[in-house]
Write a structure and sequence with these properties.
With 105 residues, the chain is an alpha+beta fold. The protein has helices at residues 3-13, 16-28, 35-42, 46-58, 77-88, 95-104; strands at residues 33-34, 62-67, 70-75. It contains six helices and three strands; from the N terminus they run ααβααββαα. β2 (62-67) and β3 (70-75) form a beta hairpin. It starts with a helix and ends with a helix.
């Protein structure tokens, strides 16, 4: 993952409402939820939800699919996994250098 994409995704999730929307969709699983159910669970106006969903979609964290007259929203799990991996993959990687010098002291 490149740092620009990671920064854009983290910025999108940095808004409390978008983070709530995203968490609702992650909890919903692979089947996702109709927009109306997301709105009902969060108690926010449709126009506000639409704005936040578009930001999450634009950054690759959420997808939408139309089924007849219903819009189904889903978390994009590979994007979530990539972002989490980007944050955690090199965790403590430089510690080996400092750990050796601490033992010598």
């Amino acid at each position: 993952m490149n740092i620009e994409l990671a920064a854009a995704q983290l910025e999108a999730l940095g808004n409390p409402t978008r983070l709530q929307v995203y968490r609702v969709l992650v909890r919903a699983g692979h089947n996702g939820l109709p927009v109306a159910q997301v709105q009902e669970r969060l108690g926010i106006p449709a126009s506000t939800l639409s704005h936040h969903l578009q930001r999450l979609i634009r950054n690759g964290l959420v997808s939408q699919e139309r089924q007849a007259t219903t819009l189904i929203c889903r978390a994009v799990y590979p994007a979530m996994d990539a972002l989490l991996g980007f944050l955690a993959d090199e965790c403590c990687i430089d510690e080996g250098c400092s750990a050796g010098s601490e033992k010598a002291a």
